[in-house]
């Protein structure tokens, strides 16, 4: 009996969605998209409100800090102004120190116009203007001592020697300012002998440079000083009559050492000329020939 072929079974095909189902799916997708969009909008607005709140809090804190600083500064400024202009901080005492030839009371009287001025407004330049009338003042410094005191420290001009003048002997400082007029040369100061006119003025500058540069123990022995140029300052020593050709103010300390050694090595019963103008090449000769 012949085999009959077995029938082949095919899987059933899925049915195509209907138009109605497609419309429903599309509507559902649109609803979901709108829901997501609304949720995103709510989330965004919530985030924006939170950011606004944070910014507002920060602004309030910053404003409070600024107000606090301004208030504190204003209070401090008001306090400073009140203290500055208070009569309790006004000048009532002027203390002048350092005067020797000057009368301290006279200097103080010249500054009386500043009494009653608030300490903060006592101007150093104004003090200087009032002190300019005193030729003996070389320099000055001031110190405010709260609540009411001004200290004025005076440095007077120091004479370096005496020069002859029609009115007598004038003691002059290194700038040529007359410090005092006297009848005789004070002990410890030399008589300065110079030519008159412009040459004498130039020579005086050299003499002044030398006298303020030489050691004090040498200056104390100088009786007279002469010079015609800046390089030929010459001394005559007190008592012995020795002549010292000093030259200019350079290397004064070395010249002083050379002079001391030369005087120690020579007979002091003889009047000598010691040329120390070139201290590395000392020259000593008899002053009498």
Topology record:
Blueprint (H helix, E strand, L loop, with lengths): L18 H66 L8 E5 L6 H7 L13 H8 L5 E9 L3 E8 L4 E5 L2 E5 L5 E5 L8 E3 L3 H15 L4 H4 L2 E5 L6 E5 L5 E5 L4 H14 L6 E4 L7 E4 L3
Parallel strand pairs: 1-3, 7-8, 10-11
Antiparallel strand pairs: 2-3, 4-5, 5-6, 8-9, 9-10, 11-12
Keywords: Cell cycle, Cell division, Cell membrane, Membrane, Ribonucleoprotein, Ribosomal protein, Transmembrane, Transmembrane helix
Organism: Microcella alkaliphila
Pfam family, one: POTRA_1
Summarize the structure.
It is built from six helices and twelve strands. It is of the alpha/beta class and 289 residues long. It folds into three domains: 23-84; 87-156, Ubiquitin-like (UB roll); 161-286, Rossmann fold.
Main beta sheet? 6 strands, mixed
Cα Rg: 50 Å
Distance between the termini: 181 Å
In CATH, the topology of the largest domain is named Rossmann fold
Give the fraction of residues assigned to helices. Answer: 25-40%
Number of strands: 12
Q: Approximately what portion of the residues adopt beta-strand conformation?
A: 15-25%
Look at the helices and sheets and give the structural class. alpha/beta
Q: Write the CATH architecture name of the largest domain.
A: 3-Layer(aba) Sandwich
Order of helices and strands: HEHHEEEEEEHHEEEHEE
Which geometry do the CA atoms define? Answer: elongated
Can you tell me the CATH class of the largest domain? Alpha Beta
**Low-confidence parts lasting 5 or more residues at pLDDT below 50?**
1-8
Question: How many H/I helices?
Answer: 6
Domain POTRA: 90-157
Keywords: Cell cycle, Cell division, Cell membrane, Membrane, Ribonucleoprotein, Ribosomal protein, Transmembrane, Transmembrane helix
Biased composition (Basic and acidic residues): 18-52
Protein name: 50S ribosomal protein L6
């Amino acid at each position: 009996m012949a085999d009959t072929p077995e029938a082949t079974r095919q899987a059933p095909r899925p049915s195509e969605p209907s138009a109605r189902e497609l419309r429903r799916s599309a509507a559902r997708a649109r609803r979901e998209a709108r829901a997501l969009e609304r949720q995103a909008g709510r989330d965004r607005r919530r985030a924006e409100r939170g950011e606004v709140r944070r910014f507002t809090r920060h602004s309030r804190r910053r404003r409070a800090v600024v107000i606090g600083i301004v208030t504190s500064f204003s209070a401090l400024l008001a306090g400073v102004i009140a203290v500055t202009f208070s009569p309790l901080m006004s000048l009532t005492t002027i203390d002048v120190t350092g005067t020797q030839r000057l009368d301290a009371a006279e200097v103080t009287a010249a500054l009386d116009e500043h009494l009653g001025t608030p300490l903060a407004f006592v101007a150093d330049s104004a003090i200087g203007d009032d002190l300019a009338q005193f030729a003996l003042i070389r320099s000055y410094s001031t110190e405010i001592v709260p609540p009411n005191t001004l200290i004025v420290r005076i440095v007077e001009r120091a004479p370096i020697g005496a020069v002859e003048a029609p009115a007598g002997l004038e003691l002059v400082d290194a700038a040529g300012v007359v410090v005092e007029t006297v009848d005789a040369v004070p002990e410890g100061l030399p008589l300065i002998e110079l030519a008159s006119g412009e040459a004498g003025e130039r020579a005086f500058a050299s003499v002044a440079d030398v006298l303020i540069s030489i050691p004090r123990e040498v200056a104390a022995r100088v009786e007279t000083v002469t010079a015609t140029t800046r390089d030929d300052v010459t001394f005559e020593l007190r008592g012995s009559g020795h002549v010292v050709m000093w030259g200019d103010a350079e290397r004064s300390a070395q010249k002083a050492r050379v002079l001391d050694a030369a005087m120690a090595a020579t007979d002091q019963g003889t009047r000598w000329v010691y040329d120390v103008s070139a201290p590395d090449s000392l020259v000593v000769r008899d002053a009498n020939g």
